[in-house]
Amino acid sequence: MKLRYIFPNFIFFLVITFQTFGADQIYVRAIDVKKANSLSTVILPMKIGVSDSKYSALVQIPSDKFALSKGKKVSLILPILSKNKVSARVESCERNVCRISVEYKYRGLDGLSGKVVWPVRDLSIPEIPIDFIVSPDGKELFVYIENKGQVSKSYIKLLHTENRFGLVYEGLKVGDRLVTTSLDKLIDGQKVEVVNDK
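The structure corresponding to this sequence follows.
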C-alpha cells in the first residue's frame, strides 16, 4: 500500500524538478562580434603645437587599441582655414596619446584646437549594432556574451555611434558571441541555447 503512494509522488517530484530546471534555459540568437567596418573613421579632438621647428599635434585616444602605426595618414579639421582639412601623418603613439606631424606649409597653426579624422577600419576595434546594448538606467551600458551555453553580463564603453552601429573600446572584443534576443529576460549566468537559423 505504501509503495502505491510513494511511487506516483516520486514521479511527480521528478517531473516538477525537470520542469523547474528546464525553465532556467532560454533559447536565444547570437552573432559573432566583428571589427569595425561600417564605421571607418571617428572624430577625435586635438591641439597643435610647435616642436623642432615643425608643427605637430597631440591626439588623445580612448585606449591603446586606437593607436595607429607610424606614417599613417590622417586629416585635421580646422575651421579657421578655408581649406578646412589639413593633411598629417602619425609620428608615434604611446599609451593614450598620439603625436602627428602637420605639413609645415600651413603657418599660424600654433596653439589651435581642432579635430582629427581618425581611421579605425584597419584596427581590431569591435563594432556592434546598438540595438543589442542594454541600458536600464540610461547611463551604464552592457551586453550579454554567450560562451558554452551560458551568458555573462559585460559592461562596455562606446567611443562613437553612427547609423545604428557603435564602436566599443572597453568590455568587448572581436570574436565574442553577442546575444541578440531575449535581452529583457536574461540574467548574469543564465543558461541558454543558441538557435540561429542555418
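Residues 2-22 form the longest helix (21 residues).
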